[in-house]
Amino acid sequence: MKRDTTLSEVIGDGGSAFEGRPVLTCRDLRASHGDEILFEGLNFEVIGGEIVALIVESEWCARLVPRIAIGVETQDEGEMELLGTIHHDLSERQRLALRHMVGYLFHNSGLIHNLTVWYNVALPALYHTRFTDVQGVTERIEPLIDRCRLREICQLRPAELDEASRKRVALARAWAMRPPFLILEDPLMDIDSSSGSELLDLAFGPTPPEWIGHDPRPANPGVLITSQGLHEGLFRYVDRLIIIDQGRVVFNENPREYDRRGMSHPTDILEQKEAS
After folding, report:
1. Domain range 18-111+180-275, CATH class
2. Cβ-defined contacts of 31-39 (< 8 Å, 24+)
3. Which of 67, 132, 156, 162 has its CA 20 to 30 A from that of 56?
4. What residue ranges do the domains of the chain occupy?
C-alpha cells in the first residue's frame, strides 16, 4: 500500500465497498490453550454494515478470535477469511496491508504511552502518509478529537487518563482511516456499566444533530465486538448475538430473542433457555 501520498488517497470510505458482503468469515475454527479447548468447530460471519457481538467465556477467548482474524495469533484448525482474503495465502507485507483496513480497539486500549492523545489518534494516518500530509491528517483527526470528546485531554498522555477516557481515545484511533471493518476487543473490560454505555452510544448511537452531514465515524462498517459478558448497551445496537459455551456456539440470533432483564453473563441466558 502506498504511503508517500496524501491521506485522501489512502483513506477508506467506511463499509460501503463491503456492505452486504462478508468482512469476516470463520470456518470450523478450533483453538486450544494448553489442555483446554477454547473453540471447537466455530463458524460465523460478519457482514458489512452489521454489528455482531461474540460473547465468550474468558478473557483469553475474548482476545483470541479477533487476533486470529487479523493474523497475529494462530488457530489449531480451520481458517479465517478477512475482507475476502485468507491469511495463509499472503506474504507478511500483504498481511500488514490487510490489517491496515481494520480498525482495532484493544482490550487495554493499546495506546502508546509517550505520545499525547492527539498523536495516538493521528498515528495511523501519519504512518500511511509517512508524515508528509500533515494538513490532511489534521483535517481528519480534529473532528475525531471533538466527536470522541477528547478536546480537553488531547495534550495529555495515556497514563494521565482514566480507563474510560483511554477507551475513547482508542475508538477515535480505530476510526482514523475510515476502515470497512472494526474490531472491539472486550471494550467493556475494566470500565463500569455507565462508562460502557457511553462508549457504545458513542460508537454506534445515532448521529447527534450537530454532526449530521459531517460525522467522522466510518460509514456502515462491519463490526465484531467480543465480550466476556452481556451489557445492556449491546442489546441496543447489536444486530446479532453469538454466545459461546464450552467452546461451541449455542446462540446465533438477534439479541431481542431473549429477555435480557437482569442478565450479566452468558450462563444466565443458558439457564433461562433451559428453564423455558
Report:
1. alpha beta
2. 31/64, 31/68, 31/75, 31/76, 32/76, 33/60, 33/64, 37/247, 38/64, 38/247, 39/64, 39/65, 39/75, 39/244, 39/247, 39/248
3. 162
4. 18-111+180-275
